[in-house]
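Protocol step 4 of 6: structure prediction from sequence.
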Amino acid sequence: MTTGSILIVDDDRSMCELLETDLRLRGHSTQWCQSAKAALEIVLNRDVDVVLTDVRMPGTTGLQLCEELHRTRPDLAVVVMTAFGSMETAVSAMRAGAYDFITKPIELDLLALTIDRAVERQRMGQQIRLLSEQQSPQAFGELLGESPAMKALYEQLSRLANSDASVLITGESGTGKELVAKCIHQQSRRASKPFVAVNCASLSENLLESELFGHTRGAFTDARTDRKGLFLQAEGGTLLLDEMGDMPLAMQVKLLRALEENRIRPVGSDREIEFNVRLLSATHRDLETAVEEEKFREDLYYRINVIQLHLPPLRSRGNDVLMLAKHFVTRFANKVQRPIEGIDNAVAERLLAYSWPGNIRELRNVIERAVTLTRHNLLTVEDLPEKIRNHRASTVYIGGDDPTELVSMEEIERRYIAHVLKAVDNNQTQAARILGVDRKTLYRKLKSPDE
């Protein structure tokens, strides 16, 4: 629950006192008055998140108050309550700029839910305004974000600038691992030399060996000339081996030997060539588990994992979602030469509520699509894909369809662990980090009692 400052406006003193007592018990700070005139004075001089107003009051009505507040404080959420719950009154309230509408007699739990949503909407509006006013959001190179996780990443990156140590960059697909690798290169002493990247999952073992180490003329069919491999193309600079977790085992042996001796042998050659590169590796896979399952060489794992950087998923970066969305709106609006200024509040709500399984890559694609198709100067909900428009935040399932079902703490724990594993694509190292346990403890909890 998000708590806020609530102003209650009702000419009935007993109603004001009742609502004040209930809302204070729920953690909100409250004040009340008995006229629209007094309410306008309070809003002018004090911080208020939500105005909860009756419709029928002597003098200025609640609907007139709503219209005035919408004109002078369009950011303020107004909830209208009335005993005359006709559709005409509801429509009039919404036209006057009300955030929501509730009828008397008041159901306190329903009112509390409405107030919580209104406060959350107010907080979100403040966040969006701060982002729109912010000229230079915190960044590191081309990386953008101000969440605690990103600030911690920036601090780690700043310490890597003068090092040649091998770095393993981990994180879900779409979190920006290659962008981080480029940032490491650009901040290093090797910045004036080449940055070269290869996706290890996209090539067969033979092609990958030739790509990395090069080949001589006649080494295989179509090898019509000598060709430098990526290790030599990156000479003096940085080589990124992306999707390292998908490298074939036989190729891992050859790579380890090259790294240990600082020499490569081109395919078809009988001589070795020294190289000077900084090695960066990236993967979305859980290499520790792969080592245990003998799908990845332990000696190579420790060779490439001198320093590990873990990139947070977008869903755990809070308001960075809105900051990145604004950045992408500006980029793609300039690209298509359209005067699109940003996103409206409803879009911000959807973006923050969505879980972003595709991370930054998915957000970028969503914003590019919206900018391309929108008919407005602000992106609206109708510009979003249906799965985001209709997304509802999921909850952890701990019971059955029968509300009387009771389960043990062990069963609740088992289901929550399964929920976390699903969220991180079955990456046990990342799941253990989220759950606050070590991997051995997680492995033990995953074993069935019969094992």
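Step 5 (inspection) to follow. The first strand starts at residue 5 and ends at 9.
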